[in-house]
Amino acid sequence: MPNGEKEKPLASWQASEYTHSEKSGAWYIGLFALSGLLIVWSIFTKNYLFTLIVPMGAVVIYMLSQRKSEMINIVITPDGVKINDRLYSYDEDLAKFWIIYKPHGEVKTLNFDQRGIRPNLVIQLEDQNPLKIREILLKYLAEDVTREEGGIDRLARTLGL
Question: Which end of the chain is more exposed for a tag (fewer CB within 10 A), N or C?
Fold first, then answer.
């Protein structure tokens, strides 16, 4: 920052790292029952590699389901988007953005395409006005109006992952 001046935040909020939903006992029974069926099917079809992958996947899903979402600090500045202590620069890190908003609290996320071979950045908008955030970001980044919620994201949300 020039002359030690502090960047003026254009918007800031705290958000969950991701949407976490509590799972019932039935959810876990379903996870392990499906895993068991897939293991039986993979043995029946002699797909032994899949027989090893299914229980590993079930364990990973179980472990992730136990993890609680942490709160993160988001600040939009003229230089970029700061998540906790990491600044994602408009010029070097971020390529474009899009907002997924479905009323009734179903989905409300701010998404960024990162430059290079890096995954999309997904930020929960919480109580932020999506139109205000969009208006701010349009000054710095192109909006990708063709993007929608991905199939994997929709499936994960539906399954409560």
Answer: N
**SS3 sequence of the chain:** CHHHCCCCCCEEEEEECCCCCCCCHHHHHHHHHHHHHHHHHHHHCCCHHHHHHHHHHHHHHHHHHHCCCCEEEEEECCCEEEECCEEEECCCCEEEEEEEEECCCCEEEEEEEECCCCCCEEEECCCCCHHHHHHHHCCCCEECCCCCCCHHHHHHHHHCC
The one-digit pLDDT tens for each residue of the chain (161 residues) are 454 445 688 999 998 877 767 778 888 898 899 999 999 999 999 999 999 999 999 998 888 888 787 889 999 999 999 999 999 999 999 999 999 888 766 788 899 988 988 888 889 898 899 999 999 999 999 999 888 776 777 676 666 66
What CATH number labels 2-17+69-159? 2.30.29
Where are the chain's structural domains? Answer: 2-17+69-159, 25-66
